[in-house]
Amino acid sequence: MTSPTDIQTFGNPPAHAHYVPATGYGGLIFASGQLPRLPDGTHAADRGFEEQVRLTLDNLDRVLAAAGTSRDRVLHVRAYLVGIDHWDAFNRVFAEFFGDWRPARTVVPVPDLHFGYMVEIEAVAAEGVAAA
């Protein structure tokens, strides 16, 4: 049995709590929930919903890259959205990000998120980079 591997990222905001950006185990990468923080740690809660989703997916992309994998290897995504009224906008930006790849997905409407954000996204991916 192998031990879990903590994955640290560079170019992403530092964690503010007791967790790592991602953990690898058994050929899988478990990415912690990403928020729309800027790489320097600046909060972006004042940005519009679609920009927050893009920033969050950019942070997820950097975590995946640090883990040696890519968005084309994402198996499952769980997204927390403040308010169901953002569903269509989320789906549109999500589809742009993943392109032809369609991971399994769960979208959970929530009343609020930390720091006043409107989205948080976590993912599970297979190790390795998909063939182009």
Could you write a compact summary of the structure shown?
By secondary structure, the chain is of the alpha+beta class. The chain has helices at 49-66, 87-98, and strands at residues 5-7, 22-25, 28-34, 74-82, 104-110, 119-126.
What does this structure look like?
With 132 residues, the chain is of the alpha+beta class. It is built from two helices and six strands. The protein has a single domain, classed as 60s Ribosomal Protein L30, Chain: A, CATH 3.30.1330.40. It is globular and about 35 Å long. The N and C termini lie far apart (32 Å). The mean pLDDT is 88.
Count of DSSP H/I helices: 2
CATH topology name, in short, is 60s Ribosomal Protein L30, Chain: A
SSE sequence, one letter per element: EEEHEHEE
Note the main sheet. Answer: 6 strands, mixed
Task: Give the overall silhouette.
Answer: globular
Blueprint (SSEs and pairs):
Elements: E1 5-7, E2 22-25, E3 28-34, H1 49-66, E4 74-82, H2 87-98, E5 104-110, E6 119-126
Parallel strand pairs: 4-5
Antiparallel strand pairs: 1-2, 2-3, 3-6, 4-6
Entry keywords:
132 residues; 60s Ribosomal Protein L30, Chain: A; six-stranded mixed β-sheet; globular
